[in-house]
UniProtKB/TrEMBL annotation:
Domain Response regulatory: 5-120
List of residues that carry 4-aspartylphosphate: 54
Descriptive protein name: Two-component system, cell cycle response regulator
Signal peptide range in chain numbering: none
GO biological process: phosphorelay signal transduction system
Entries under PANTHER family matching the protein: PROTEIN PILG, STRESS RESPONSE REGULATOR PROTEIN 1
Phylogenetic placement of the source organism: Bacteria, Pseudomonadati, Thermodesulfobacteriota, Desulfobulbia, Desulfobulbales
UniProt entry keywords in alphabetical sequence: Phosphoprotein, Two-component regulatory system
Pfam families linked: Response_reg
Length: 191
């Protein structure tokens, strides 16, 4: 399973650094932003599998806005909000807007890693489903082409059978000549 790319957005340098170190130690590919503006700039440069953002940040772009920007740019990116206990209602509201999940501070890293594993598993399942869908499309196209080729071959063979039948039932020609011509037609078209 490929490692998730994660953008950590938090205005608290201690929490940001702790998240960065713990996630990198678990082999996640981690980028950080110290505010919503930096998060927006990072998101405009590249997509991430997961955005892990603090809900409450100073400045014009908080966690809800980071969620909205992320979902507008990359609808498949999963957004997990980090919230203080007092803002759980806001986190629930954010989930209605498309957030995948939320975590309360202080962060329980076992819980975070379980949620990231769940996200990774869902991404793997979705990728497998897309691969299967693509394979089915290719198979369906090949089957359709094969059926069309078989139908054309059957039509040509039916024309040949009809021509031989017409020749063999033509009473205006001697029987030996009818048989000889039928054999000639069959030999010429016997591929």
């Amino acid at each position: 399973m490929e490692n998730l790319t994660i953008l950590v957005v938090d205005d608290d340098p201690v929490i940001r650094r702790l998240l960065e170190q713990r996630l990198a130690k678990q082999s996640y590919v981690v980028s950080v932003a110290e505010n919503g503006q930096q998060a927006e700039a990072a998101l405009r440069e590249q997509p991430f599998d997961v955005v892990l953002t603090d809900l409450m940040m100073p400045g014009g772009i908080g966690g809800i806005e980071v969620l909205e920007i992320t979902k507008n740019l990359y609808p498949d990116t999963q957004v997990v909000l980090i919230t203080a206990h007092s803002s759980i209602d806001s986190a629930v509201e954010a989930m209605k807007k498309g957030a995948t999940d939320y975590l309360e501070k202080p962060i329980n890293f076992d819980e975070l890693f379980l949620r990231l594993d769940k996200i990774a598993n869902v991404k793997t399942i979705l990728r497998s489903a897309k691969d299967i869908e693509q394979a089915m499309t290719v198979t369906e196209s090949a089957a359709s082409e094969t059926i069309q080729n078989l139908e054309m071959t059957v039509a040509k063979k039916q024309q040949l059978i009809d021509a031989v039948e017409d020749l063999l039932t033509d009473d205006t020609l001697p029987e030996d000549e009818r048989i000889a011509r039928a054999i000639t037609i069959l030999c010429e078209n016997g591929n």
